[in-house]
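Posted in: Protein Modeling Q&A

I'm a second-year student putting together a small comparison for a lab meeting, and my supervisor asked me to include a predicted structure for DUF4440 domain-containing protein. I've never done this before, so apologies if this is the wrong subforum. The sequence is pasted below exactly as I got it from our records. If anyone can share the structure token output, I'd also love a short note on what stands out.
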Amino acid sequence: MKPKFVSMIYLEAEAILKPMYDAMESTYDAGDLTKALNDYFHDDGVVVHKGVIVQYGKKSIIENFSKMAEEWGKVKFERKHQKYDGCDRLIFTTFDAIVDSSKKGKQKAKILQIFKKDDDGKWKLYHDEFEILK
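Accepted answer (user: helix_wrangler)
Welcome! Here is the predicted structure, written out as tokens:
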């Protein structure tokens, strides 16, 4: 017998991710970038800064985002046109973002993220792909 595909509707995916985004951003806003990344990134996570660099694993991701934090300063994110889709173990989201940086001003970005549900039932950011638009 073939397993049934279990589709996740938009509202279910949004209800899972919105509190995660809020908590991650709250931790970051409190000045703890490392904790935000440790708590919400998957151990085998991947970050793709399109056309610039790819990192694999939490250690590499934390090191690179720490370097970016020095270059960009304090950052606020505004998501627009966010779309969600998913199934029982993965949630996909795409959105446009306004990245408001204390050192670089406002920049636009396109973002694709994949969240994976671990065996312990917690959702973690598994793939974070972004492009800073010129």
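A couple of things worth pointing out for your meeting: The beta strands are 7-8, 41-49, 53-56, 75-87, 90-101, 105-117, 123-132. The CA atoms of residues 33 and 66 lie 8 Å apart.
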